[in-house]
Amino acid sequence: MLIVLFLTASLFIWVALVTSKVLAPTPGTERHADAVISLAPGDSRLPTAFHLYSAGEADELAISWFPSRLSYGIVKPEWALLEDLNCRNATRDDIHCFTPEIDSTYGEALSVKKLVEERGWESITVVTNRYHVFRSKFIFEHVLPSTVDVEVIASPTDLPVIDWLRHVIYENAAFVKAIFETSFG
Length: 185
Known about the structure:
Radius of gyration: 17 Å
Number of domains: 1
Strand content: 15-25%
């Protein structure tokens, strides 16, 4: 009985802590970085990252994108911007479009790690949705070398309560996965 009580209390504390970080993540600060990274897909991530890049808050822009998803309309609002940035042809040296081998935040972090090594970045600003900030920061800080300064900021996130509930449940489970991925690869 004592073990069940301990496990129940531990689970409750875990859910409470992760949920609080999902709903109210520690806000990142906009500051100049070597690169701004747009995680994908998302309805406001790329526009936010592009705004930071255009405003001179980063020397380079990296975009995680999945061309196959575009045909299904998952990131329709970003399609025109992706086309303008020429992700299909990669003609600019300061804009990097990449498709992670692993379709997850962990996969995106591994791809960014390669860019960090190739480009010599010492600081990055990762742009994601508010509910995803806590887990993204955890993953990127565990995958990238400790010498890389990682800041994660939230793009505008306006969701109905039911969607927040769905994200809270998902992020609690996904954080457990993130711990295993970053620990054991």
